[in-house]
Amino acid sequence: MQADLVIRGAQVVDPANEVNRVADVYVAQGHVLDVAPPSEELPACEVLEADGLILCPGLIDAHVHLREPGGEHKETVATGTRAALAGGFTAVCCMPNTDPPLDRPERLKDLLRIIERDAACHVFPLAAAVMDEDRSRLSDFAALKAAGAYGVTDDA
Prior knowledge:
Radius of gyration: 20 Å
Number of strands: 11
Number of helices: 3
C-alpha cells in the first residue's frame, strides 16, 4: 500500500513504541504505514510540513465537565468535545455532575444519545457513585455499567 499522506519532519512521540525523534510519518487511508528518518525525497502524495511540531497519539482527558444535561449555558457535549480536539485530545471522560446527576441507567442512556449525536471525539461517561448526591446511598454500579458507564466517581 502506498502512502497518500506524508507528515514530514515532526517530532514524533509515541511512548508505546518507544519513539521520540524527528521523523517522517507515512499514512494511507488514515493508518500509519511507517515512521522513518527524515527524507529529502519528495513523495508522490500530499505532504504536510511539520518541522517544529509534535506528532503523538491522541491524548485522553480523564476529567472533564461537559455539563450536559442541565448546564448547557456553561458547556455541551458538542462544544466540550470540539474544544478537546482543538487541544489534541481525542477522548475524554466526562464527570457525572450534571443536572440531574448521572446516577441512574436511564439518565446515562439519555446522555449516550446526546454523545452519539453531538460528540466530536470519543466520550467515556462516568456515573455518579451515589444517588441524588446523598453519600449514604450508593448507586447501582452494575446497572450503570450495563447502561454504558465506563466507571463511577464521587466527583462533585
